[in-house]
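Weekly puzzle thread! Below is a chain. First person to post its structure in token form gets bragging rights.
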Amino acid sequence: MLSVMIILLFPMIYAFLIATQTPAQYYQFPPRFLPGSSFFENIHTAWDRINLGRLLFNTCVVAISVAIGKIILSVTAAFAFVYFNFKGKAFFFITILITHMLPLPVRIVPTFELIDQFNWINTFKGLTIPFFASATGVLLFRQLYRTIPPSLADAARIDGAGPLQFFWSIVIPLSKTNMAALFLIEFIYMWNQYLWPLIIANADRTRVVQIGLKQLVDTDAAVDWHIVMAGALIATLPPLILLIIMQRSLIEGMSFYEEK
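Winning reply:
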């Protein structure tokens, strides 16, 4: 296990080592697998060169908005599929699952044309709204709600609770662990998005951190890899911190989903 851990962590360890070195140090042969003395200087340079603070803020706004939007739509859709009977219920659910088989590159052209018609290019609406719908989220919460005993809904109905009251007072509290797991998954997914922001967000006010890191590489001169790695390390901190804080909820939510 220790060997596998070292192999998996080696890219991060090597990135950290490069981020602490000067160009003369990381161009040495054989490679220098020791920390340098320029870590804080490299961090400062990366921060200023691409306005990294603004990029991190934009990415946080996009990731949090999409995670919250997906949770809201997934929870309400799953509640409707489990507790309401309507015409075409099975058809609509299957249709939602089919969309899960279509990755972003497959539907990127029609989605871009739609966003362009709405005049959402270079806006946070264009970056976030197309990702609100989630087949994975709907399936996750649908499986959870199907495990809630029907007698609980019957008891709430006898006590005079309507559908919304039952939803807010009973269903939502039972969904907190799964909501936290989905929030973490979607936050990291959106944090790592590159293709869609590259097409939609060309303005400085909407550019995200992944595109900013690419700007550090796009240069006519030799690439300053120590600056690139320093910027990459900063970009990994928000999702890493969130993962450490919410790892218990993620494990519990995913364990429940796998069992069902």
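Puzzle host: Confirmed. Bonus trivia for everyone else. The chain has one domain: 2-259.
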